[in-house]
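**Folding the chain**
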Amino acid sequence: MSNKTHTVDTTPIVGVPFSFTASPVSASSFRTSPFRAFLFRAFPGVAEGTRTTRRRVPLLATAAVALAALLTGCSGSATRDVDATAPLAVADDAPKSPLLPSLFFADGGDTFSAWRCTPSRDLVTTSPDARRLRLWTGQGGTQLPLAAVDGASPRYAKGGLSFTRMGRDALVESDSARLVCTLAGERTTLTREDRPESIFYASGSEPGWSVSLDRRTTTLTLVSDYGQAKDTFDYRVASVKNGADAEMVLVSDSGRRPLEMHLTAKACFDSMSGKPWPATVTLRYGRQSWKGCGQGVEAAQ
């Protein structure tokens, strides 16, 4: 039996890429199970692998694939040899960009709306459809289902939080606060029609900068100094958290200086225009630190 190992790229259509290593195993690891012993004899390349995220790929799942291949080979009138040590085939165009938290996106909403509220509080909303509302505050984000419609005033509610819109005004109520809000501005959602190669876009001022995460690879492009400098980096995901307080940290050491990018699902407003965004972004590049706003790029409307 050869001692050669095969590194297999099992990148999913969406999600963080991972790989596992399939290497020959000894018969002793199968002694406790006749089924495993059978698999070892039929497919000597089957073995447990390790994801780059340090989570084990279950042996049972690997064995099931091997058994399915065996049964498929037996179903026809002709037989064929099975190379169990060959790497799995993955489409060349499968995206390798990471899966981003849901609250970085409008999820189909056409526009983001900025609300100025009393007592002092600023909110961002979008309506993916008539049945739900996405709401971001300075603490995080949430999605509220439609609870009732009173005339032309839809009310969205979940738990102790509700949002009632009355034209250009809104009433936000929770167990601990009551806000009276006025529509302060809107911004059209970024889609692939605007940025076809990006899965996330962010920008800031003083100095002017922007960042685009490539939609198909783990690379990002930083444009800084008001468009005078442009750099591309390979990055990796240092941490990610989904839910109401969704956040993500990206790091790179492939450029001239270390880069670190923090993305958080919170109400954000452009420092120059006041336009609303669903994510705050902090970018550290070497000794420089910049702040701005960002959004997951939607599929074309």
